[in-house]
Amino acid sequence: MEILKTSDLPPLGADPSRTYRLGIMGGTFDPIHNGHLVTAEQATDELHLDLILFVPAGQPAFKQERNVSPAEDRLAMTLLATAANPKFMTSRLEIDRPGITYTADTLQELRAHYPQNVELYFITGADALLEIVTWKDADKLAEIATFVGATRPGYDLEKAHAELEGSSIPFKVHYLEVPALAISSSDLRARQQQGRSLRYLTSDEVIGYINKRHLYE
Ligand code: NAP
Predict the structure, then answer these.
(1) How remote is the CA of residue 27 from the centroid of ligand 1, in Å?
(2) Alpha helices (H) in 56-184, listed in sequence order
(3) Is-contact 52 87, C-beta < 8 A?
(4) In whole angstroms, what is the distance from residue 133 CA to residue 45 CA?
(5) Which ligand 1 atom is nearest residue 123's CA?
(6) Three-state DSSP state, 26
(7) What is the Å distance from ligand 1's center to 125 Cα?
(8) By the 8 A CB rule, do 43 and 145 touch?
(9) Can you give the pLDDT of all 217 residues of the chain as single tens digits?
(10) N or C: which end of the chain has fewer CB within 10 A?
């Protein structure tokens, strides 16, 4: 059996007569939780993705002011949470790239790596996508990938559409409503700080890791 290192990119695209779909799950994952996992599973199902690469951000572009947990801890938790699903892989691509993490750099690297019969789907929270027109190289992003915005119940989709329609860049965006996204990383951090239970909001392995590393205390 082939064991992939987190620095390897999983193989995809071998058969030139068919199209493959790679999901790229972008986020800070501080910590990863069941809402993220359900999002990835739902995206796999609805968009017929062959594989999802979870890519924890190294130094998130819009989070310079908040204390984010060390990248290696966020990576370790992501690995623990995704290990059991054969379609989920975790990558240290963004963690190993020095400097601020820009999605454009990641997508360009993946586009150069995979053959053209592999389509790229970048999945993240719909709130993050609201600002996509301000991201670095926004026009290139729109050429390279389809964007998938995961929404929490009650999310204002009209607002999201209006933001993107007002832009001259032709983004391809698909929205997914994910009830499990009532769970949020900020809520998990607050619960841990208050000594409340995280059970069933994220995996037992991730909870064990948080306790062992004294994260969010
Ligand atoms: P964020 O602002 O922390 O998240 C916005 C919302 O989306 C939060 O409610 C968050 O919930 C949710 N969310 C984040 N990732 C998600 C995922 N994969 N699936 C479902 N919900 C998700 O967002 P961020 O983590 O800073 O950025 C998200 C992604 O966009 C990252 O890959 C980041 O690198 C990229 N980004 C790129 C640029 C750029 O290139 N200039 C700028 C901003 C963001 P939780 O807190 O519960 O996750």
Answers:
(1) 4
(2) 71-82, 93-96, 103-113, 126-129, 138-144, 157-165
(3) yes
(4) 28
(5) 18
(6) strand
(7) 5
(8) no
(9) 567 888 899 999 999 999 999 999 999 999 999 999 999 999 999 999 999 999 999 998 887 667 899 999 999 999 999 999 999 999 999 999 999 999 999 999 999 999 999 999 999 999 999 899 999 999 999 999 999 999 988 888 888 888 788 788 999 999 999 999 999 999 999 999 999 999 999 999 999 999 999 999 9
(10) N
For residue 12, the CA-to-ligand 1 centroid distance in Å is 25
Length of the chain, in residues: 217
As for ligand 1, residues whose beta carbon falls within 6 Å of it are 25-28, 36, 39, 57, 60-63, 101-104, 123-125, 127-128, 135-136, 150, 181, 184-186
| Residue indicated by tokens 């948080």 | 210
Tokens read off for 101: 């993490």
The single-letter code of the amino acid at 160 is: A
